[in-house]
Amino acid sequence: MESITKEIGSQATKARGELVKEVSENIQLPINHAVRDMNQTLESMKLETEKQENIRKQNQALLERNEELAKRGAQFTVSALAWVAVIAVGFIATGFLGYGLMEALGLTVSLPAMWERVWGAQTWYGGLGWFAATVGLTGSLIALVGWAAYRLVKPVSDLLKHSD
């Protein structure tokens, strides 16, 4: 009897072990699939988060670049308008200064007279001499007026450079 009990106990233990093993395998397989699916979902979410973070960084860099460009554009516009005003005032001042200087020195009368001497010279070397004198005087006047304009515009230019 005892041997039958042992054998039944042994078979029951064996059957219970197989049953537990089978139930465990039946439960473990869906759990493994669920864990694998969750890991895949987690990885895909992690990749998507990294992509979104990269896109956010790129958008932030573009936004900063656009803000910098807008700031530079505004500065350029102000500078361009200031330069236009300075140049206009410079031309007007140079014109009045140049004409006033020429008038004061009597050059408005003498320059046309010198050109008449160039064209009315009796010899080629006389015409060449008067031409050199007339061009030299005209060039000197232009240089003087340019220098004066530079001296007038330079302080304003320095002011504009420091305001940017």
Explain the overall architecture.
Residues 35-72 form a coiled coil. The chain crosses the membrane at residues 80-102, 122-150. Keywords: Coiled coil, Membrane, Transmembrane, Transmembrane helix. The chain has 164 residues and is mostly helical. It has one domain (2-163). Helix content is 96%, strand content 0%. The protein is built from 3 helices and no strands. The protein has helices at residues 2-105, 107-119, 124-163. The longest helix is centred in the N-terminal third of the chain and has 104 residues, at 2-105. The N and C termini lie far apart (109 Å). The model has no long low-confidence stretch (mean pLDDT 82).
- Largest sheet, strands/sense/barrel: none
- Count of DSSP-assigned helices: 3
Helix content: over 70%
Radius of gyration: 49 Å
- Count of structural domains: 1
Q: What is the H-and-E element order? A: HHH
Low-confidence stretches at least 5 residues in length (pLDDT < 50)?
Answer: none
C-alpha geometry: rod-shaped
Question: In percent, how much strand structure appears in the residues?
Answer: under 5%
Decide which structural class fits the backbone: mainly alpha
Distance between the termini: 109 Å
Q: Mean of the pLDDT scores?
A: 82
**Total beta-strand segments:** 0
Keywords: Coiled coil, Membrane, Transmembrane, Transmembrane helix
